[in-house]
Amino acid sequence: MTAVTSDAPRWLGRGGRLVSVEPAVAAGDRWALPGTGAPTLRMVLGTPGGAYVVEAVRDGGCAVPAQGEGAAEIADERVDAGRLHGLHGLHDHFAVDIDLCAEERWLGCADLLHGSVPRPRDHALRWVAEVLADRVGCRLATLPLDDGGWAVAERRGSRGQVRPSLVSAPSWCGSPPTAADRALLASCLYGWAAAGQPWGKLASMVVLTRATSTV
Q1: What is the DSSP string of 61-98?
Q2: What is the DSSP letter of 201?
Q3: What is the distance between the alpha carbons of residues 209 and 117, in angstroms, rounded to a whole number?
Q4: Which pLDDT tens digit goes with each residue over 128-172?
Q5: Residue 184, Ramachandran bin (φ over 0: left; ψ between -120 and 50: alpha; else beta)
Q6: What is the pTM of this model?
C-alpha cells in the first residue's frame, strides 16, 4: 500500500492504526509492524512479571478516505500481512482525536477516542468516563494529563463496565512528545488493553523509537 502523506492533520484527527504487544524476549530485534515508513512509536513496558514491547504504527493505507469507502478491506489486508509476518497479538483499530475531529460519523465508529489537549487530573478522569458512556461502541478513551501521565477509561466485561484509571507518563528520549507521538501513544495504550493486560500491572513505560514522520 502507498502511504497517504499529504494530509497530516487528517490522520492525526482520525485514521486506521495497527498495534501489537509481545513479550520483549520474544520480540527481539526482529520487531517491526508492516508499513515501514509510516510514523511509528515503539515502547518497552516494564511490568512486575517481565517486559513487553508495544509498537503502534499509523498506516497511511488504512487512513479513511473522505468518502469513507474501502477502509475495511484495506484494514483486513494489513492485518493479514501482519499474520504472515508472524506478529502475534496484532490489533487493528480506528482512532479519532476528539480535539481535532468533531464529525459525528467518525466519533460514532471509533474503537479508540483520545484527546490531544492535556487536562487536569480530576477533569480528565471525568472526561474519559463520560466519553465511553456516550459512545457505546468505543472500547477505550484516553486523555493526557497536564502534570504528566494519562487518564484512561476501558470498556470491559460482558456488561461493558467503564473503568477510569490513571497511567504513568512514559520516559521520552530527547525532546518532549509531539502531537504524533501522543496520538500513537494512545494506540499503544489501546494495544495494551486489547491484549488483556490490566493497568495495575503497568510499572513503567519507556519510549524506544519516536514517530519517524509527521505525515
Answers
A1: GGSPPTT--SHHHHHHHHHHHHHHTT-TTEEEEEEEET
A2: G
A3: 22
A4: 999 998 898 899 999 999 998 999 999 876 556 778 999 998 888
A5: alpha
A6: 0.80
